[in-house]
């Protein structure tokens, strides 16, 4: 087992694990123990993987593509279900189906661009109407939910629907209360019965139940209205697939699986997307010289009478480089989603036994000073070639890499590109001094969220 810090009986490294910015703490361990660090989360063996060579090797090793059992899924869905927290054949079958159907539905293709444009227009209007300074994450979260729901549930949800705002607030609470290590309940599930209502475990569990109720209601409606010859969305396609397999007792196409997959997509896509664009706007307010260059490029290429589209992207190298820098600087999933060794394997020469949890530190790759020189400086130019074209870099991996890489990457890239560029094109952002931002490190949890901040949005178009 790889070398690592001493462990306490039963709890292992858990009491020492920092709740705020654990990606930094876990990366620091490598200066003592090397790129692959062994420790225990409770009684579960875990390796932390830091640095490009080790991270690349881990993400390309399919024996490390499992997922540790997730205690919340066990409680909310009665077992490991969905796409994100399953492994083996179930994972392959469900991931393949989701990707295939999303493509059939035009996932991340033109028709979705239309949906993203529609939602972006509504968002711009809402910001224009707002008085004084605004917090962006809720507004952005609602836009993301509506876009994701268009793919999954077909209908266009209205921004005025209170349930959406409630869901966004609860999902945010879930993502901030969560902890990548799984916390004490992951190792000792019985402890959950002793926890107070406002404990982070209960915040996550109740939030997931709320999302699940929303999705279950939609599945019931879809069942009633289903026309097998005219599927409208992901839920319809899944229900049709379930019917095809209804006589096979071993089928993985069952309703709990549909609900959990929708839950994965809904939860994975909302908070990460709004965090990325929120960080982007915060960084623009802190770097007005970058914002001005992006605006100039957008004015020249897009003009002032329409929204930026994906076809413009290749003509917007500085803007594209700026978004790449946002993804590098404050990637929304610094420690990715926990992986697990499916069988004994070797990583960087160290033995990783079957069932070991593997935490792959993407932050250690995207912020490595030996590679990026000045990683703590927000500098879009690092993604530009000397001739001004976009420089792609294989170490920019905010969505992971390999077979487990983010399922929603193309939709997430499209959404963040259109929403971010439209916001910067339409408004000059300045920070509201009433909410000081001491640093841009963000707030940890299951993912990394932006710090609290408010901006004034002055219309420029
Ligand atoms: C900026 C936004 C996003 C970021 C930074 C992000 C990042 C990630 C990362 C790092 C992983 C884990 C990869 C691994 O385990 O090695 C992941 C997995 C996943 N993401 Fe995303 N994601 C984003 C948006 C989305 C969206 C919009 C969706 C929904 C369409 C989505 C759905 C998923 C799913 C289902 C998985 C699990 C894939 C699997 O286990 O096979 N994500 N994402």
TrEMBL record:
The keyword Cell cycle does not apply. It comes from the Eukaryota. Belongs to the cytochrome P450 family. It comes from Scylla paramamosain (Mud crab). InterPro entries: Cyt_P450, Cyt_P450_CS, Cyt_P450_E_grp-I, Cyt_P450_sf, Cytochrome_P450_fam2. One of its GO terms (molecular function) is iron ion binding. Keywords: Heme, Iron, Metal-binding, Monooxygenase, Oxidoreductase, Signal. The lineage of its organism: Eukaryota, Metazoa, Ecdysozoa, Arthropoda, Crustacea. Its cofactor is heme. One of its GO terms (biological process) is organic acid metabolic process. Heme binds at residue 406. This is Cytochrome P450. GO terms for cellular component: cytoplasm.
